[in-house]
């Protein structure tokens, strides 16, 4: 087991200092990217008057990219092999969400369209 | 297993404490995974409240709609506070992992806590301003859905702040021991996760509602 196998194999202080710099940089990159991806949609809504659909598409894209940025740089979820199981947990949750949220929206908006047109915003 | 360096010794999702924190690092394997399972179940709760909100957008019952009660400035400040707090919590995690000293760890945690409390205060002011415009939860389906979704996130942030206070107290009494370390690692997951849920809230509820 990996738990008992570490004696004598500790990383050297230089390795650790390097890892520290790398991880600090990762948080800074994540913070800057998240900031940019927040400012774009806010600026768009506050200062421009694009058609609603175009604005929504940009807001949606920025949000999806920012979620990925947060997962990657703040929560350290990557495609590396040793975190694959946890990535599967997250991806399975997104599948469940897709089915339940997508299903809810599909069914209810179909119902509104057929029976209660006033409820379609 | 031939060679096991700190870099490849990854036991659980997220930031791993690594070899110098042997006991906490080992204990965290199960704790962090279990906490991720809880976090993902929480994500489904939020996801479905988002779906409920979307289906209720048209249900204003003649009352105020999104553009009547929502404002952009408050949520923008809240977004910046929460994003900054996510970054400062990252700095606290690094201070813990690389043993940069207790003072530095506590300093980053206190900054994070203040940013979290600032977020809650601004959100409460937002709700207050909504109430004054007639945007109360019982007014319409839309407002009920809004007040199911957004304050639930606020309650999560409040709980995270209380948890942070508890860990700071624990730290004052017992020092930075294994249970403090594993507690902080899990609180970090919750904190970053709440920031991700907030991305959904400011995008769908505030930006989506105000650009229509």
Structural description of this entry:
- The complex is a heterodimer of chains A (121) and B (212).
- Chain A is flat, with a radius of gyration of 22 Å.
- Chain A folds into two domains: 17-76; 81-121, no CATH class.
- Chain A is 74% helix and 0% strand.
- Chain A has 121 residues and is mainly alpha-helical.
- In chain A, helix 1 (13-47) runs antiparallel to helix 2 (52-74).
- Chain B is an all-alpha fold.
- At the A-B interface, helix 1, helix 2 and helix 3 of A face helix 1, helix 3 and helix 6 of B.
List the helices and strands and how they pair.
The complex is a heterodimer of chains A (121) and B (212).
Chain A: H1 13-47, H2 52-74, H3 84-115
Chain B: H1 22-56, H2 66-69, H3 73-97, H4 102-132, H5 141-174, H6 178-210
Integer count of domains of chain B? 1
CATH architecture of chain B: Up-down Bundle
Number of strands of chain B: 0
Order of helices and strands of chain A: HHH
Task: Please report the number of helical segments of chain A.
Answer: 3
Q: What integer value in Å does the Rg of chain B equal?
A: 20 Å
User: How many distinct beta strands of chain A?
Assistant: 0
Task: State mean pLDDT of chain B (0 to 100 scale).
Answer: 91
Q: How far from one another are the termini of chain A?
A: 57 Å
Structure classification of chain B: mainly alpha
Largest sheet, strands/sense/barrel of chain B: none
| Helical proportion of chain A, percent range | over 70%
Multimeric status of the protein:
heterodimer
Could you report the average pLDDT of chain A, rounded to the nearest whole number? 86
- Please trace the helix and strand order of chain B, writing H or E for each element: HHHHHH
Low-confidence segments of chain B: 1-7
Beta-strand residue fraction of chain B: under 5%
Q: What is the CATH superfamily of chain B? A: Cytochrome c oxidase, subunit III, four-helix bundle
Span of the ends, CA to CA of chain B: 58 Å
Strand fraction of chain A = under 5%
């Amino acid at each position: 087991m990996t738990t008992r196998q570490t004696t004598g194999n500790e990383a050297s202080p230089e390795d650790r200092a390097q890892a520290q710099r790398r991880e600090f940089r990762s948080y800074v990159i994540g913070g800057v990217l998240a900031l940019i991806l927040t400012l774009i949609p806010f600026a768009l809504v506050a200062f421009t008057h694009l058609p609603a659909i175009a604005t929504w598409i940009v807001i949606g894209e920025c949000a999806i990219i920012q979620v990925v940025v947060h997962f990657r740089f703040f929560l350290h979820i990557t495609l590396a092999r040793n975190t694959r199981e946890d990535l599967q947990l997250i991806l399975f949750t997104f599948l469940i969400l897709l089915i339940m949220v997508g299903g809810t929206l599909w069914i209810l908006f179909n119902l509104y369209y057929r029976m209660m047109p006033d409820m379609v915003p | 297993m031939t060679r096991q360096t700190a870099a490849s010794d990854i036991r659980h999702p997220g930031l791993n404490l690594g070899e110098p924190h042997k006991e906490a690092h080992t204990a965290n394997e199960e704790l962090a995974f279990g906490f991720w399972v809880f976090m993902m179940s929480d994500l489904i709760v939020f996801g479905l409240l988002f779906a409920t909100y979307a289906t209720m957008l048209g249900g204003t019952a003649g009352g105020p709609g999104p553009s009547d009660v929502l404002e952009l400035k408050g949520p923008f400040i809240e977004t910046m506070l929460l994003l900054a707090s996510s970054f400062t919590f990252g700095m606290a995690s690094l201070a813990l992992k690389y043993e940069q000293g207790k003072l530095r760890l506590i300093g980053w945690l206190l900054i994070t806590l203040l940013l979290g409390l600032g977020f809650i205060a601004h959100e409460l002011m937002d709700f207050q301003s909504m109430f004054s415009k007639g945007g109360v939860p019982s007014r319409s389906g839309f407002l009920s859905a809004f007040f199911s979704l957004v304050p639930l996130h606020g309650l999560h942030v409040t709980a995270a702040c209380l948890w942070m206070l508890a860990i700071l107290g624990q730290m004052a009494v017992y020092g930075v021991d294994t249970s403090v370390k594993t507690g902080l690692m899990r609180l970090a997951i919750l904190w970053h996760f709440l920031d991700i849920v907030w991305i959904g809230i400011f995008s769908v509820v505030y930006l989506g509602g105000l650009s229509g």
